[in-house]
Amino acid sequence: MLQLFQKDLIFLHAPSVYDFRKDTIMFGPISDVVPSSPTFEMYPVGITSIAETLEQNGFNVQIVNVAYRMLRDKDYDPEKVIAAMHPKAFGIDLHWLPHAHGSIELAKICKKHHPEIPVIFGGLSASYYHEELISYPFVDFVVRGDSTEEPMLQLMQAVKYNWPLERIPNLTWKKSDGSPVINPLTHVPENIDYVSVPCYSYVIRSVFKYANLQNTIPYLDWLKYPITALLTARGCTQNCSICGGSKFAYKNICNRDKPAYRSPQSLIEDIRLIEKLGRAPIFVLHDLRQAGQAYVDEFFSLLKKEKIKNELVIELFWEADDSYFSKIADAVPKFSLEMTLETHVESIRVMNGKFACTNEQVENTIASAFKYGCRKIDIFFMTGIPKQKYSQAVECVDYCRHLLEKFEGDKRLALFVAPLAPFLDPGCLAWEFPEKYGYKRFYHTLEDHRQALTNPSWKHVLSYETDSMTRDEIVQSTYEAALKLNALKHEFKLIDEDLYRQIEFRIKSAQQVIEEIDSIMEISDEGNRRKALGELKNKVEQINRHTICGKDELKWPISQRYSSIVSLTSVFVNLLFTELRLLSQRVKLLVVGPKTQPLRYPEAKSNNLPR
Known about the structure:
The protein starts with 8 loop residues before the first strand and ends in a 5-residue tail after the last strand. The chain is built from 24 helices and 18 strands. The strands form four sheets. It has an eight-stranded mixed sheet, with helices on both faces. The chain has a six-stranded parallel sheet with strand order 8-11-12-13-14-15. Helices cover 43% and strands 12% of the residues. The protein is globular and about 70 Å long.
């Protein structure tokens, strides 16, 4: 009977750098324009959909956000916690490269205390580096691709019931003698309607099932600001040169020729659940227009019937006009926009594939959005992009002034500048063809990136420089642009005097600390160098978050975080019945036993990979 409640798979989400609590590392502004901290404690949404798929098929799956727990509690001991776990397998995500250090360190800990329990990796970066990952002695499996719910199900069945591995799609694994095997990457679903992404119903059930809220919280401030998200697609129609989620990168890494979309109906079902939980904004990930006009029309037509109270945050990948914004305004009471321009230089945008239109079209888009009641427009500029000169990186602030003057200081404009940091995404166009896009890459292997993350400042972590800017210039231009933008926001009363002074102080302090770390790095004796860095730790920690913008500038105002007791109770009751149904399935599985493993996929091929 104990088998009914035994955890089959435990997902562990690692901090970016495992030793971040004791090492002196100036992360800088690398996470200032995302919800999570420099520890990157927000786990990939795909973990929840994998967990739901497994639970629907008789497995018990728990998510443990190790990064969040370490941030929240200085006494939290990940090694002690992992040593006490006894699942059938550990799952560790390596989606983006900033987790290259922490994820591998967690894998080492798992194997140290549980040498017999397999460790499974997944995510875009894991997929790209699967051959190198499988060579580590503490990694047993890598599940490749962007939609790994079915391969993970088959793998967990194989682990639990000792079935063969040769026919599991997308799997890289090792034979008993340690020789690696790469199964074909053939599981590339054409749509993702088979599961919710993120799967909020799983997350809520797991909180009660495992009596632990802290393990599943996505980022540090989530309880205070519980924003939700909807993933509309896996894959992309756009070919932005520096994006690891571009069309080229998805083909390169995941064997995906075109995006897999969730249907408008499935998105609406998720929105219904989210509205029952709370009134926080719903971030719609990816530009809905990628799927075509009919898709857009159907989504907003269905959404209008729902009469939701939540604000929708819409991403734009290219310019939009009255016809689009009128549909949005007609369907929801409140909406905001996210626009990543990257640069005001039109020729660079065209080459880079992001907002490949004129500035006039950008401004017409803003005017149209305001016309239809858009509450806030976040506009992001970047430093370190292809062919961008130092002067162009800083001059984006002059264009921000132009926008504020044109729109008469409209406080709905939220302007940001941030670096392309810390790494260039593996698999993107600029990564694969660095000379064409003007990049020089310092790191190539996964191990290179893992080691780089332990460097003491984000300048030394940067994985590249360009033919237009050195590492030093990328850092300097970032801070110079941030200082100018901060002053501009204050001038136009987008931020108050107190916030303006705080940000200015943090930026100037960061510039000073960068110089101090550079000097310390010149110390030849390692012991003395570590001592000097240790003495700088408290100063670094004070400026490691929200260096270049205020912590609330990215937020959308909300009047009510959570729904009524009646609404929440109805959700919990429904989920309780779901869990009881799943429990009965597990009882049946325990009594009757599993089905025979299906043989649906091509034979695997053996590879003599470097160990």
